[in-house]
Every structure is written in structure tokens, then in C-alpha cells.
Write a structure and sequence with these properties.
The protein is an alpha/beta fold. It is built from 12 helices and 9 strands.
């Protein structure tokens, strides 16, 4: 790697960590030496002075910790950029009130191509786990971006959309005909709608075309225990879900929903990504699929391609499910 490439990578990696709200960065001495005044300026331009982050700021407490850590990493090698300290003082005087913040997920290492998501650090909010982006949402979105032809010109429904990262990413990048994001919690649905507004600001403006985005994106309440209440006109080509296999009690209701969609379309394809936190629960899901006469295949996904996720964690699985004819 050339010095220019290495310099760009150090700055880019720091920017991506900051945007997605991660303190999991470490600078080796050679990397810290790269962060001269000009490269600190490049970082400042991509973060502090970034209009997107000014509109949708990252968590205040996280920002303070990030800048303190970054300053500690480079202060032995370079004078610290004035804007680092100015911004840190601003953060110190800013009151932190909100449970929610924004994370900005960079696609394909291109800081001009970002999915912005309003979410929370908390595991559970108001009785739901759907208020944050979970790892399987990243892996499923990455798989979709690596297989855009699967989704092109298709009607898609997402189960358990949470804050909407996967559905929004696929909607922006995969040239869909339409997509419906579903969940069963009112607060989650409101958050999905807000995240759609953030990422598709021109969607409702007929005078301002947005050719790179799906024009038909919707949000719908869907309780898996009421699968019979599915709208008759909701007939997707593809059904997706990320991190929705987490509790033995929901496995049969989930299978019931899948079956309801298969009853509408024999050629339906289902893609479900899971982080396997409990092997018994996941195996029970596979057994439930077989019991309900579904056929499944495990899809290969060894490394990150377009979206960064933890490819060191092998306790994950993405399934393709079809009807066992």
C-alpha cells in the first residue's frame, strides 16, 4: 500500500468509526503519524463540518469520548487541530437529553453514499428491541448489495424491520419495484417512517425526481399472530428479515406468516439473516421450517463487501427459504 493509500485509509477508517458511533479504533504509531494537520482537516471536514452530521448529529456523549481518544492517540506526534478542541468544548457545554441519536453507515467505502438511521444504544426501549440496528441487518443488507440482480424490479416485504436499516438500504440501492417495511410496535413504525424521511427527502416531492431510489416504499403494522389479516393485495416476490429468530415462542407465528405469503405466491423467495445467540433456538427454527414443509439453503457470506460488519463472528447464518414442492 502506498503512503497516499495508507493515509487515505487511516482517515477513512476513523471517519467511518465516528459516523457509525464506534469507539473500536486503535492507531498504531505509524498510523498516528499519518494524522498531520492536513489529514486532521480532512477528518474535520468529513465529520464536524459535514452538513449531514450537523442535521443529524451522532450521540453527544459518544462524540466527547471519540475526540478525547483520538486526541490522545495523535498528540504525541502532531499539534492538534484547533477545531478538535473547539468542537470538544461545544460538546462539553451541550446538554445530552435524547435517548435517540443518529448513526451513519457508509456504503462501499464511499462517504458520499451513506444510510442515516435514527436509533438508540439501548437494548430495549418501551418493551421492544426494535429501536436499534442489529448486526444481522448489516449482513443481510450487504448480501443484498452483493446480489442486486435478485432484487431488481421485485416487490419486497420486510418482516420485523426495526429501525429500517436493511429495507431502506435495499430500497436505495437495489432498483426495486416496491418495498413494505413491517413491524408490530407503534413506536418502531414511527421510527421507520422518520428514517425513510431522512434517507428519501425527495420521495414526496413530485417536482424533484430521485431516479436512484425506489419510489414505492411503505410502512405497515404486521403482528405475526394475526397472519390471516394480511392485505389481499400484499403479494411480494421476496420476503426478508434480519435478526427475527430470537425467541422460541415466535418461531411458529413466524412460520405462519411465511406460509401466508407462500399461499399468495408459490414462487416467493425468503431471505432471513440471523446472529446465532442461542443454538437451540436457531435449530428449532430450522426444524420448524421443515415441519411447515419449507426448504432452506444456507448462503455463503464469508466477508464484508459493501457494508462493514463483524466477519470474525462465525455465529451467523443467512438462509434462503422456498416452498418445498
Amino acid at each position: 500500500m502506498s503512503l497516499v493509500d495508507k493515509t487515505n485509509k487511516v482517515v477513512l477508517d476513523l471517519v467511518k468509526c465516528y459516523l457509525k458511533g464506534s469507539l473500536a479504533f486503535h492507531l498504531e504509531p505509524e498510523e498516528a503519524k499519518v494524522m498531520c494537520w492536513d489529514n486532521q482537516q480532512a477528518f474535520v471536514n468529513a465529520t464536524i463540518h459535514n452538513q449531514l452530521l450537523q442535521n443529524y448529529p451522532v450521540n453527544n456523549e459518544f462524540s466527547k469520548l471519540f475526540f478525547k481518544k483520538l486526541i490522545d492517540c495523535i498528540k504525541s506526534y502532531h499539534e492538534i487541530h484547533d477545531d478538535f478542541y473547539t468542537f470538544l468544548c461545544f460538546l462539553m457545554n451541550k446538554e445530552s437529553l435524547n435517548t435517540f441519536c443518529h448513526r451513519h453507515y457508509v456504503l462501499n467505502n464511499d462517504t458520499r453514499n451513506i444510510i442515516t438511521i435514527m436509533e438508540t444504544n439501548n437494548m430495549v426501549v418501551n418493551g421492544t428491541t426494535g429501536m436499534r440496528t442489529w448486526e444481522a441487518a448489516l449482513t443481510l443488507a450487504d448480501w443484498a448489495l452483493s446480489n442486486k440482480d435478485v432484487f431488481a424490479h421485485k416487490k419486497v416485504v420486510e418482516l420485523g424491520s426495526g429501525v429500517g436499516f436493511t429495507g431502506i438500504t435495499i430500497a436505495k440501492e437495489c432498483n426495486l419495484e416496491s418495498i413494505v417495511l413491517t413491524d408490530c410496535h407503534n413506536d418502531v413504525l414511527k421510527t421507520i417512517k422518520r428514517n425513510i424521511e431522512i434517507n428519501f427527502p425527495k420521495l414526496n416531492n413530485s417536482d424533484d425526481a430521485q431516479p436512484d431510489a425506489v419510489s414505492n416504499i411503505d410502512v405497515m403494522m404486521l403482528d405475526w399472530n394475526d397472519a390471516e389479516d394480511l392485505k389481499n393485495n400484499l403479494v411480494p416476490d421476496i420476503l426478508i428479515g434480519a435478526d427475527i429468530v430470537y425467541d422460541p415462542s415466535i418461531l411458529q407465528p413466524l412460520c405462519n406468516v411465511i406460509k401466508s405469503f407462500f399461499d399468495k405466491n408459490d414462487l416467493l423467495e425468503v431471505y432471513i439473516a440471523s446472529m446465532i445467540r442461542n443454538v437451540d433456538t436457531f435449530n428449532s427454527f430450522l426444524e420448524a421450517l421443515e415441519y411447515n414443509e419449507f426448504k432452506y439453503f444456507k448462503l455463503a457470506q464469508e466477508n464484508c463487501v459493501f457494508i462493514e460488519w463483524d466477519d470474525n463472528n462465525k455465529q451467523r447464518c443467512t438462509l434462503k427459504i422456498i416452498k418445498n414442492k
